Amino acid sequence: MASLASRSLKALRVASRRAPRAVTQHASAASYSLLARSAVASSARRATTPNTVRGIKTLDFAGTEEVVYERSDWPLAKLQDYFKNDTLALIGYGSQGHGQGLNARDNGLNVIVGVRENGESWRQALEDGWVPGETLFPIEEAINRGTIIMNLLSDAAQSSTWPTLAPLITKGKTLYFSHGFSVVYKEDTKVIPPTDVDVILVAPKGSGRTVRTLFKEGRGINSSIAVWQDVTGKAKEKATAIGVAIGSGYMYETTFEREVYSDLYGERGVLMGGIQGMFLAQYKVLRENGHSPSEAFNETVEEATQSLFPLIGAKGMDYMYSACSTTARRGALDWAPIFEAANRPVFEKLYKSVRDGTETRKSLEFNGRSTYRQDLARELKEIDEQEIWRAGKTVRSLRPDYKP
Ligand SMILES: NC(=O)c1ccc[n+]([C@@H]2O[C@H](COP(=O)([O-])OP(=O)(O)OC[C@H]3O[C@@H](n4cnc5c(N)ncnc54)[C@H](OP(=O)(O)O)[C@@H]3O)[C@@H](O)[C@H]2O)c1
Question: Which of 17, 187, 341, 401 is the most buried (most CB within 10 A)?
């Protein structure tokens, strides 16, 4: 079954390189993804039973009621009909452009890509089967051809290109973002949308690569949706529909402000900055106390990512604790509040730095440089060369499913 699915996917990829429009039509007969075809067929059968029909709903999140939108509200035929007169113009083809664009294309929608001609993104778009003059255009031309302008340039580029792009976003078009960054921090970015277009947001809560892999597995990523400006009265509905189109499974309503504050905070905190800092601090103390690199790595990173963190993801923190020894449980229960107290001032400082725009200005300055790719790559190489991550390469190489 799995190999059949992967053969179908391979065939789709080959076909998509040759003739993206034909694939679009083929996919329209399929589903949210080829791999999900059978899953969706059976969920469609279930949806005929009234008690199991799901859709927009209010759920109790630890005592707070919140509205959640879900994909089953938008069967593929309805989705395609809704967007039948639209062209989704993806501007930028980084990680989100790749994931969102391919998913919307596989969902049978009219999608085009607009990027700098002959840049790295142009090359990647060609590799993914977008065809120059048909589905791949320079940025300005793609905006002119699109009705829904999906601004997926880097946040710094959204700001630097705005004076050129803004006049092209004319009445009747919709302006879409995947981050509240540009419009919320408008004093710094100077991105002020025209007053006669809907301005909406779908922000997947994960990398664009995950947006794509979850879609291919027939699952969907969690996304935040929000409306900045509703000219047509349909902005929220449109945001929900596009959320489904680009591969979301569940969508949580928020505002542009709350999305950008929480996102900038989270990625600098536990998701990326915090985790690297914690891993490194723990590893270094082990090494200073005579532990070998493999022991320090296994006890810091490997056990976390391969054993314990997936248990938190599956069933929560108490479940992970319960799966560990009583010795481990006692110690972790004692030390968790100490770590919380030590970290809390750092998180408070971080949140303040997000809210007052310090993080935005730093990002605009750094990522606005013409050398942003090389500059980021240099610093990431420094991480890659840290002993902890060099030790990790050897540990990973021993896994049975290791791929260099
Ligand atoms: N990645 C994530 O995990 C994630 C998650 C949720 C939301 N978002 C949001 O999604 C949006 C896109 O993010 P991303 O990670 O996909 O992309 P990104 O890596 O931040 O940006 C890449 C795109 O920006 C283009 N670009 C950069 N500088 C440019 C310039 N001066 N002129 C024209 N194009 C330029 C690049 O084209 P070239 O190749 O030609 O340089 C590339 O297509 C952002 O708003 C981001 O905050 C990202």
Answer: 17
- Residue 89 CA to residue 73 CA, distance in Å, equals 24
- Active site annotation includes 179: yes
3-state helix, strand, coil in the chain (%, to 5): 60, 15, 25
Per-residue pLDDT reduced to its tens digit, 126-141: 999 999 999 999 999 9
- Atom 22 (ligand 1): residue with closest C-alpha? 94
- Whole-angstrom CA distances from 377 to 65, 131, 199, 207 are 43, 29, 33, 18
Residue-level pLDDT at 385: 98
Q: What is the pLDDT of residue 4?
A: 34
pLDDT of 67 reads 87
Closest ligand 1 atom to residue 139 Cα is 33
| pLDDT the model gives residue 55 | 62
Ligand 1 neighbours, Cβ below 6 Å, are: 92-97, 115-116, 119-121, 152-155, 157, 160-161, 178-179, 181, 203-204, 207-208
Tokens of 131: 């065809």
CA atoms within 13 A on the CB side of 113: 31
**Per-residue pLDDT, 403:** 84
What residues form DSSP beta bridges with 222? 250
Whole-angstrom distance, CA of residue 360 vs CA of residue 200: 20
Q: Hunting for tokens 């540990």 — which residue is that?
A: 395
- Pair of tokens at residue 258: 């709350």
Nearest in space to 148 (alpha carbons), one of 78, 196, 199, 77: 199
The answer to whether 299 is annotated as binding is yes
- The set of residues, in sequence order, having a beta carbon less than 8 Å from that of 391 and lying 6+ positions away, is 293, 294, 296, 297
Q: What pLDDT, on a 0 to 100 scale, did the predictor assign at position 61?
A: 92
pTM of the model: 0.86
Q: Of 93, 96, 251, which is best to mutate to test ligand 1, by the most ligand atoms within 8 angstroms of its C-beta?
A: 96
| CA 275 from centroid of its chain's CA atoms | 19
User: Residue 29: its pLDDT value, please?
Assistant: 39
Instruction: Tell me the average pLDDT across 65-84.
Output: 94
Amino acid 401: pLDDT: 87
Sign of the torsion formed by the C-alpha atoms of 42, 45, 51 and 57: positive
- Supply the pLDDT for residue 54: 53
